[in-house]
Amino acid sequence: MNFDVITLGETMLRLTPPGFQRLEQATTFDIHIGGSESNTAVGLARLGRTVAWLSRLPSNSLGRTVAATIGRFQVDVSHVVWTDRDRLGTYYLEHGKPPRASQVLYDRSNSAMSRMQPDNLPTTLFQPHRARLFHTTGITLGISKSAEATALRAAELAKAAGWLVSFDVNYRGKLWSTAEAQPSCLQLMQLADLVFLPIRDAQSVFNIDDANSEIIINRVGAIAPNSTVVLTLGAMGAMARTADGKLFYQAAFPSTDVERLGSGDAFSAGFLSGYLEFEDIATALRWGAATASIKHTIPGDLPLVHRHEVESLMASASPTDIAR
User: Fold this and answer.
1) Which of 50, 73, 166, 281 could pair with 194 as two cysteines, CB 3.0-4.6 Å apart?
2) What is the C-alpha separation between 153 and 115, in angstroms, rounded?
3) pLDDT reported for residue 92
């Protein structure tokens, strides 16, 4: 089978106290799974793309739960590496409301994915015409040196096979410092055709002391001169800058928030789906913004959107793309 997109990354078990309880109040937990690259993979599959997810999982009931859940949403998991020696990473999410912020507690050290090696990659998959695009994130780079080496090797194999490479900086301060993240992310950005990052990551990871989104995206464009850079702006929408310096802007679609976790991954899924289908940056931005807006209404990490919902939202709102 050939694929539109191959993703690589860690997926964890997520435990969340019901309602807005604190962790120390909880006697039961709601269980979800969550991982940036698998979230994006599921979103892409829901929008009609053919997708495979690469990772390393423990061969126990928790690992099988992750693979079965992702596979249930039409993502190919047949290339996952299984191990009987390591553990599944977990994390705890405590929902908060202002002035109490939501909190995330990781328990992912020495996870199966953190011990994935470049030679675990299915090299027979990384061949011309087997896929159109490879996608990974800075989270995978940050969980361990071996995971970083694996992601970098996968991107190199993808480029050698003639695929596009997509990289989401997706900085997580609980994993590593900005000083550690910057050189690692720069390696992937030099290979990437598409670079995603929220404006806060551009400012912190790349030491850009400015609030002007155009200045920021142009600075990132100078760092990754061969890439189209996509800068997400939260409630203000998103921007894109092509390698030749052309700028595009897309306003956010209104939504009622149920859960924002995973909305960046949903945006990436929508953008990549639109880009692969229409080969147009403005259209891809619109798909990304609409997919993220619908994800805001869905609990859990996974963007369980329907394509017709995204199309309906785009059709119902007046166009807000500005290209210059």
Assistant:
1) 166
2) 15
3) 96
- Report residue 199: phi and psi, to 5°: -60, -35
Q: Are 56 and 116 in contact (CB under 8 A)?
A: yes
84 an active-site residue?
no
CA distance 25 to 118: 42
**Residues 103/179/272/241 CA torsion (nearest 10 deg):** 120
> Whole-angstrom Cα distance, residue 293 to residue 260?
9
Average pLDDT over residues 14-31: 95
At 323 the pLDDT is 43
Q: What is the model's pLDDT at position 202?
A: 96
Taking the C-alpha atoms of residue 76 and residue 70, their distance in angstroms, rounded to an integer, is 8
Question: Which distant-in-sequence residues (6+ apart) come within 8 Å of 125 by Cβ?
Answer: 6, 52, 79, 131
Whether residue 318 is predicted with pLDDT greater than 70 in this model: the reply is no
Contacts of residue 66, Cβ cutoff 8 Å, sequence gap at least 6: 11, 13, 33, 38, 57, 88
User: pTM of the full predicted structure?
Assistant: 0.96
